[in-house]
């Protein structure tokens, strides 16, 4: 099973059996402004339109989310509704190929359709919503696509205009959109559509599906681990027993120099809350002659669990000469012109070009204990540099996510050692029992090049 080596090109087959007029459906491809994602989105749009020509002379409207406005926060969808998407009725992810779909019929009622996920236990990433019985609330798996009928879109657009969006933070978009649509019970629940699937396309279970999954150098990555003296004996040994061996270049940064690990003291005191001072010292060291000249910088916490080989495969999709910032994207104040940021616990990945631009801009911490990930997000936003989301990075533990959400992933990271055995979690979710021969490695390098092209 080599799916971990094909992360960047995992795509959907989507079956479209056309309604009487394709103009009744507006397709929104949930694209991002990074060049790889733009290319993928444009391919998906071309595939969809080519299909449509065989059915009708009237092509559907196909829009790319990243190009709908200049507001960076519009990836969170709800702020976009009043301005541009009154005719919205369908959402896709950039990893879809369109072929044929017969699950959606546009009706004159409020419909919210998708593949439902639910929380098996209350979780911090959803602010412990429905704590007494979290499984009663269903939200859509974006990887299977989701749909809204026009009457629902119109009502949501009017609601957004009349009522400011309440939450400052955007953490899990699919859950937050579903909560907004549900509207404390006044709006529709998510209706399950069995044809919206996330099984592999060659699976026996795929015969009824409109959507299916199609699965798509150490020396290039420098890994910076943020730690402190009190966690040297508790957290660092977990890294050494799990993923440290997969990183060619790795340094531990602490408030205390311990040669037995070893750790490096950057001269920044430990802080209980944010770690902005330490992170910016890491950025400066990354560009110095003190460390190898590498293309990518990965910054993680000492309680982050990560698969370096899977990260290598994912990064092969991106151009390190571009300003790339990659990880699990959160948002702050997006409906009021806020900004996106890569949440730190799941791992923050920056191309060398991003680090150069950040530091040359004069961007800096307002205090050593400022939240480093949010400060970096503000800086990137001020510079007009994109933040690229990958759902394979995770700010929380596996049990904090819906089982079906993780079932079709090859995850790259999880975060926190709280109430878990972190080594067991790593072995279950992130360890690949795979040793490749030289010929196999050459084959996979060739395969990556073919997939990207």
From TrEMBL:
Localization of this protein: Endomembrane system; Membrane
Any single GO CC term annotated in Swiss-Prot or TrEMBL for this entry: endomembrane system
Sorted UniProt keywords: Glycosyltransferase, Membrane, Signal-anchor, Transferase, Transmembrane, Transmembrane helix
InterPro entries the record matches: Fringe-like_glycosylTrfase
TM region positions: none
Topology term for the membrane: Single-pass membrane protein; Single-pass type II membrane protein
Keyword Transferase attached: yes
Pfam family, one: Fringe
Keyword Cell cycle: no
Chain ranges of the Fringe-like glycosyltransferase domain: 215-421
Molecular function as annotated in GO: glycosyltransferase activity
Record-stated family: Belongs to the glycosyltransferase 31 family.
Stated name of the protein: Beta 3-glucosyltransferase a
